Amino acid sequence: MTIAGSPADQAAQDGGFRSAEGARKVPLRHPWWWVGGALLILVIGMFVQLLVTNKNMDWSTVLTFLFDGEILKGLLRTLELTVLAMVIGLALGILLAVMRLSANPLFRAVSWLWLWFFRGVPPLVQMVFWFNLATLLPKLKLGIPYGPVLASWDTNTVISAFTAAILGLSLTESAYAAEMIRAGIQAVSKGQTEAALSIGMSRFQVMRRVVLPQALRIVVPPIGNDLISMLKFTSLVSVLATPDLLYSAQMIYSRNYKTIPLLLVATIWYLVLTTLLTVAQQQVEKRLKTTHHRSGAMKNVKRLRFLPSFGKA
Q1: Distant-in-sequence contacts of 294-301, Cβ < 8 A, 24+ apart
Q2: For residue 193, is pLDDT > 70?
Q3: How confident is the prediction for the chain on average, in pLDDT?
Q4: CA 164, CA 13: separation in Å to the nearest integer?
Q5: Please, which of 12, 84, 224, 232 could form a disulfide with 281 given CB 3.0 to 4.6 Å?
Q6: What's the average model confidence in pLDDT over 105-114?
Q7: Residue 277 CA: distances (Å) to CA of 79, 180, 221, 281
Q8: pLDDT tens per residue, range 120-147
Q9: Packing angle, helices 69-100 and 259-305, rounded to 10
Q10: Residues 6+ apart with CB under 8 A from 216
Q11: What is the pTM assigned to this prediction?
């Protein structure tokens, strides 16, 4: 029997819910959500209208040059710059990270100075510097220090615009990659390193077989972001007249004066490439996460094998 005027009776009459104290639970109202949502829809609608109705967009020209041979060659050069700069930068980054964690004070000092310099100087400044290195060193020489010269090359021949672009991008990447890799290495438990050393493994073997594989799972997300950033940084090489994607678009619109449509072509290709790299990064992270969970489960199974069995004769 329900007593009239009780919290349960009042809740049944008004259709609401009450807590143990009898206070009715009313869902929070967020009127500003609706206002913000309406403003966002309005802005998006205006942007879409601009894209569709503005004649200066000239979508027919965009479609004409989207798969133009010159644009596609620039796209391949952009990919080439991205891959080479990342490979060289990561290789140097691993070396610098190991030097940064070394017990040798000279190695640590050299690594710190490298990071300080190449993180402090913008990549565009580095590219221009390397491209004009001939004014400082007309000849690049190979020989014994303070001794005879074994070989020499003309600096302008060796340091082309493409080489200067690779140097500027990869050296900058090496500094940032070194810090990310160092953080990943330090995240691995020192006990694993000590255990590996105790069974007779050398420090190089410990780093290659124990530490780096585990650090990879931590380093992959920031390295993936760096790869996407590197793809966009390659547009800086247009200053050196290197025919990448942006420079190819600039060369075309300098002839036909279709500036906005050609910039849209470059924008579309950059968005396509960054989208593909983002999807690939997510798949790699998912694969590493799954592998990590499986390896953890296998370790637990191996541990269970050593537990005593009960209930057996």
Answers
A1: none
A2: yes
A3: 84
A4: 79
A5: 224
A6: 96
A7: 11, 19, 12, 6
A8: 999 999 999 999 999 998 988 888 877 7
A9: 40
A10: 184, 288
A11: 0.77
SS3 content of the chain, % helix, strand, coil (to 5): 75, 5, 20
Residue identified by tokens 């510097």 is: 129
Which tokens is 233 given? 């940084």
The single-letter code of the amino acid at 55 is: K
The whole-angstrom separation of Cα 266 and Cα 249 is 7
* Cα→Cα distances 241→104, 160, 196, 197, Å: 43, 11, 51, 52
Q: Which two tokens stand for residue 50?
A: 């601009």
Query: Contact, 174 vs 226, CB < 8 A?
Result: no
Instruction: Give the residue ranges of DSSP H helices in 18-160.
Output: 31-53, 59-65, 69-100, 105-120, 123-131, 155-158
DSSP of 25-38: --PPP-HHHHHHHH
Torsion, Cα 48 51 53 58, to 10 degrees, reads -160
Long-range contact pairs involving 75-80 (C-beta distance under 8 Å, separation at least 24): 75/245, 75/248, 75/269, 75/273, 77/242, 77/243, 77/244, 77/245, 78/231, 78/234, 78/235, 78/244, 78/245, 78/273, 79/273
| pLDDT confidence band for 1 (50 / 70 / 90) | very low
C-alpha–C-alpha distance, residues 250 and 76, integer Å: 16
Residue 262 host element (H or E)? helix 259-305
Q: Which burial class, exposed, middle or buried, applies to 4 when counting CB atoms under 10 A from its CB (0-12, 13-18, 19+)?
A: exposed
Joined together, the tokens standing for residue 44 give 């998006």
Please report the pLDDT score of residue 125 as a whole number: 96
Q: Is 138 helix (H, G, I), strand (E, B) or coil?
A: coil
